[in-house]
Amino acid sequence: MSEPEDTEDRALRERLGALRDDSPSPGFQSALHRRLVEAGPPAPAPGWDWVRWQFRHRAPIVWPSVGVAAGVAAFLVLGAMTKPPAPPTVAEAPQPLTVPGTQVPVSKVAVIKLNFTADVAVAQADFQVSLPEGLSFWADGEELPLRSFQWTQALSAGSNVIPIAVRGQRPGRYLVTAEARAGGQRIEHDVVLEVTDG
Predict the structure, then answer these.
(1) Quick one: where's region Disordered (predicted)?
(2) For the chain, which terminus, N or C, has the lower number of CB atoms within 10 Å?
(3) Please, what are the domains in the chain?
(4) Nearest to 122 by CA among 160, 170, 77, 72
(5) Phi-psi region at 55: left, alpha or beta (left = phi > 0; alpha = psi -120 to 50)
(6) SS3 147
């Protein structure tokens, strides 16, 4: 070691030795303790400090409450997201003819496109289309005498569009009813067709 470092080291030791240890008076500790007990615990600061304080001091109440709230929220969210598809409903009465429909003049043939949607492929489905008086099926440029037409065909998964050609005999609003049966389920479509003068 060099001599200047020794003198600095010695000076530091002398200064540290000159420091006094002023211990508090005997009554100070008990007075401080009494004042802290009277003041009570400090209030948590707003924000995350308050949340941490709640979790730390009220854990037997807060944790179960948070768990129940999270469970209820998960149940509601999953219930809203995974609603089962409604079973096909059976129409008990024809829809009123105030539903807007397709317009076609008396002199024209209307092609009604029925769209049956299936979640999975169906090997065999029975179909029936019924026409009211005033409408007739049309095929190969001729009017067919049938009021109702039935057939069986397979359905693919997804959308299945079935075109039906009809022609109005006189002006008016008519309700065309189409029905599909597959695997014990019955699906019914009603289409309003308005035949106009022309």
Answers:
(1) 1-29
(2) N
(3) 28-83 (no CATH), 102-196 (2.60.40.10)
(4) 160
(5) alpha
(6) coil
Distances (CA, A) of 109 to 41, 44, 49, 51, 141: 88, 80, 76, 72, 9
192 forms beta bridges with 175
Return d(Cα 76, Cα 79) in angstroms, integer.
5
State the CB neighbour count (10 A cutoff) for residue 159.
Answer: 10
Burial class (CB in 10 A: 0-12, 13-18, 19+), 2: exposed
The string of DSSP letters for 3-60 reads HHHHHHHHHHHHHHHH----PPPHHHHHHHHHHHHHH-SPPPPTTHHHHHHHHHHSHH
pLDDT in tens, 99-149: 445 677 877 888 888 888 778 888 888 889 998 888 888 888 888 888 888
Q: What are phi and psi of 97, to 5 degrees?
A: -80, 10
Using alpha carbons, select from 177, 196, 178 the residue that is nearest to residue 102.
196
Q: Which is nearest to 102 in space by CA: 171, 193, 198, 9? A: 193
DSSP H or E stretch at residue 173 = strand 172-182
Max mean pLDDT range (17-26, 45-54, 72-81, 179-188): 179-188
Contact of 132 with 78, CB cutoff 8 Å: no
